[in-house]
Specification:
This protein is an alpha+beta fold and 156 residues long. The chain contains one helix and nine strands. Strand 3 and strand 4 form a beta hairpin. The longest helix has 29 residues.
């Protein structure tokens, strides 16, 4: 039986495509499962799940989704502030709470109004008795053509 060089090339191509498909699936799973931030302050009683930035003329809306840790509670009496690298403290323009039937808060959505100069350095969120890192980068965030970008990690 004679095996042509064409069938050998197809077999090699098939193996290469299978390896590329497996590598892509592993990367997609890792991207989907990685946390927003690896080091979470336990005093914050939760963690950021994602951030969305929407451009509004020369300013930005920053939406944060926070998941309250299992067995922890969010203290509504303590102020929540977004702190810029320059020390400016911003209060949320809107806060939405989500929970279950036992009146337990499980999720918090915060919306902040920021100016371009507020992005000159990292952003942190003071919540409960701890801090959460919102952003580690600096400079105005890049938003796509729809003027909205979602960031699944703090590295933006």
């Amino acid at each position: 039986m004679v095996v042509s060089s064409w069938s050998v090339k197809l077999a090699h191509l098939r193996i290469l495509l299978i390896v590329a498909l497996i590598a892509s699936a592993v990367f997609a799973a890792w991207s989907w499962m990685r946390p927003y931030s690896w080091n979470v302050d336990p005093g914050a009683c939760g963690r950021i799940e994602g951030a969305q930035v929407k451009r509004d003329l020369s300013n930005y809306w920053l939406d944060l989704r926070i998941e309250v840790a299992e067995g922890k509670t969010h203290d509504l009496m303590k102020p929540v502030r977004l702190v810029t690298s320059g020390g400016k403290e911003l209060e949320a323009a809107d806060t939405t709470l989500g929970g279950d039937d036992q009146k337990q808060i499980r999720e918090i959505w915060l919306k902040f109004w920021l100016e371009a100069e507020d992005f000159k350095g990292p952003l942190k969120l003071r919540i409960n008795d701890g801090w959460l890192e919102v952003r580690s980068g600096s400079g105005p965030p890049s938003v796509d053509g729809s003027n909205v970008s979602f960031f699944p990690t703090q590295n933006w």
